[in-house]
C-alpha cells in the first residue's frame, strides 16, 4: 500500500485528491496539511511514501518545505509537486529542491495516480512538456559548471543513456534508439544513478544540464 500525504492550502483541492485516490486499491491517504509548516511536521510524523505538495501555501511554501524535508537523511518522503501555476522558475526551483515529479493540477487524474506509483517505486517523473521547460530554463542560464570527476566513471553506454534521460526520453524510447532491451536500459540507468550519487531520473535532467553534459537544442 502506497501511503500519501496531501499538502495544499485549499480544503476543496485536498478533498478532490482524496476522492481520486480513494478509488485506487494500492493507495491510501494517511494525512493532510494546509500549509508548508504543517506539511513538514506531518511528513516527519507520518513518514508517507509520497507527499503531494502544492507550491503556493502560507507560512512556508511548497518548495521551501520540499527543500527542508529532503535536506534530512534518510529521506523522510518522496515529493510530487502539484501547482496551478505553469511557471518555468517554479519547475526549476522544485527540481533543484529535490522533488521527484512536477505536475500541473490541470493534469488528468490518471496522470496523478501514475506519478504517485512511479515516485513510490523509487523513480522520478517529468511530463515531456515540463522537461522542455527545464531545457529552456538552462538555455537562458549562465554557462554550466565544470564536469564532476564522477562522470569519468561512466561507461560509454551509460553516458549515452544519461544523455537520453536528460532529454526526457522514456526507457522504451531509449531502448529503441540504442537497439537494446528496456531491462538493459533500466540497468544502465540504475548504475548511472549509483555512480553519480543521484536519486532518480529527474535529478539526472538537472545534473546533466547544470554540468554541461547535454546542451539545449542538441539532438
TrEMBL record:
InterPro entries: CheY-like_superfamily, NreC/VraR/RcsB-like_REC, Sig_transdc_resp-reg_C-effctor, Sig_transdc_resp-reg_receiver, Tscrpt_reg_LuxR_C, WalR-like. The modification 4-aspartylphosphate is found at residue 54. Residues 147-212 form the HTH luxR-type domain. It comes from the Bacteria. Residues 3-120 form the Response regulatory domain. The keyword DNA-binding applies. Keywords: DNA-binding, Phosphoprotein, Transcription, Transcription regulation. It holds the Pfam family Response_reg. The keyword Transcription regulation applies. This is Response regulator.
